[in-house]
Design brief:
alpha+beta, two-stranded antiparallel ribbon
Amino acid sequence: MTLFTVPVFPRVSLLDTRSWFDLVQGTYVRTSTILDRLPIGQLQRVAGGIFFDGEYSYSEFQQQGLILHEFDYWWDYVLPSVSLGARQLLPEVTASLIMKVLELSRQLYRKAGYFGLIEFSFAADGLAGAFFSRGGRTWLRDPPKLVESEINITRRFSMGELEENLLAISKRCQRDIYWAFGFDAPEQWLEEEFNFA
């Protein structure tokens, strides 16, 4: 899974490399997944930014404001019985990652003084025939199953909208994931999945 936020049409770097390093290094958010926080992993310096290389994740922060996170389907390794027979994408995981990536980006952009337009993207691939199901949910028919092999969701919003509507933006992205799996998710499902917020 790949999630990123990026300022739209930045004219210059948000901060110099050293200031960006200090800002990112001092900012993190807690998640409700096996990755207990973002960013996580071994910190490395690269031209124009830094990255964190973790066991199941990779996060990169460029001084122009690109914030990129890549996540493996760690439950395939940690709980192999979860995806036995067919890969699963877990709604409680996507909900947490979407919201926490947006929350971390919001904090960093605010501290860096960026208040313009932001583009957000969620992409997941290698999912042909995958299910999107949460344990314990009873389905009237088969759980949501993906017809295609990938999901791509992109949204644009202002920093002001992100400040005021973080939860609502996150829920809309989650609803789009359900839609890709063939379901129009009711508000109750979204409330359950974002109950950590």
